[in-house]
Write a structure and sequence with these properties.
With 211 residues, this protein is of the alpha+beta class. The chain has two helices and six strands; from the N terminus they run H-H-E-E-E-E-E-E. The longest helix is centred in the middle third of the chain and has 61 residues, at 61-121.
């Protein structure tokens, strides 16, 4: 094939095969992920190969706040219980101190009541003095003072003081036959036992012990 005389120095064009156009390069397309697993991942897991899953997942902020709230609530409940116990203990201590103070004052007034009782038996408490004596007993009773001891009461060594004892086969148990001095108490606190005369079965003789 002769070259045209007016064209000089041009490179020869590449020869193409008969029946075919210029060779085309395949255009890049999306990788086929259906037939092979992704590179860098473990097959069937979807996790990157060579990467170990951490031992625990990071705690969400809401869970952290909820845990702190529960802890603070428990602290407040414990503090409230301690304060309630302290308040009850202080209240009991105040009542005990008040009872002790009242008992001490009333104990000092018992001789006055004994004198009034003796004067009443002799008929010397009359008129205005009698009204004063009754008002005094009323006020002392309002403070919790209680007198006890009467003839016919079963003898109780916890609240009675036996001054005399008369053996008697007619009584099945020891009885108070006479009250020589009244006893007094404030609530459950004994201020003074009652002095009484006691009658009842003679006590059993103690076994003789040789020296």
């Amino acid at each position: 094939m002769n070259r045209p005389p007016h064209v000089h120095g041009l490179p020869h064009p590449p020869l193409a095969l008969v029946g075919h156009g210029p060779a085309k390069r395949p255009e890049p397309g999306p990788p086929d992920v259906t037939d092979r697993p992704d590179e860098g991942t473990e097959q069937g897991t979807g996790r990157p190969s060579g990467h170990e899953e951490p031992a625990g997942r990071p705690t969400p902020p809401e869970a952290v706040l909820y845990a702190e709230l529960r802890e603070r609530t428990a602290d407040l409940q414990r503090l409230k219980a301690e304060y309630d116990n302290y308040r009850k203990r202080v209240h009991r201590d105040r009542l005990a101190v008040g009872e002790i103070a009242v008992a001490n004052v009333l104990s000092r007034l018992l001789p006055v009541l004994d004198s009034l009782a003796e004067a009443t038996e002799q008929g010397e408490v009359t008129g205005g003095f009698q009204r004063v004596a009754e008002a005094l007993r009323t006020e002392l009773g309002a403070l919790g003072l209680q007198a006890f001891g009467a003839a016919g009461d079963p003898f109780d060594p916890l609240i009675h003081e036996a001054v005399t004892f008369t053996p008697s086969d007619r009584l099945e148990q020891a009885m108070c036959t006479e009250v020589l001095r009244l006893g007094y108490r404030v609530g459950d606190r004994l201020l003074r036992p009652a002095q009484v005369a006691v009658a009842g079965e003679p006590p059993a003789a103690a076994p003789h012990v040789r020296p």
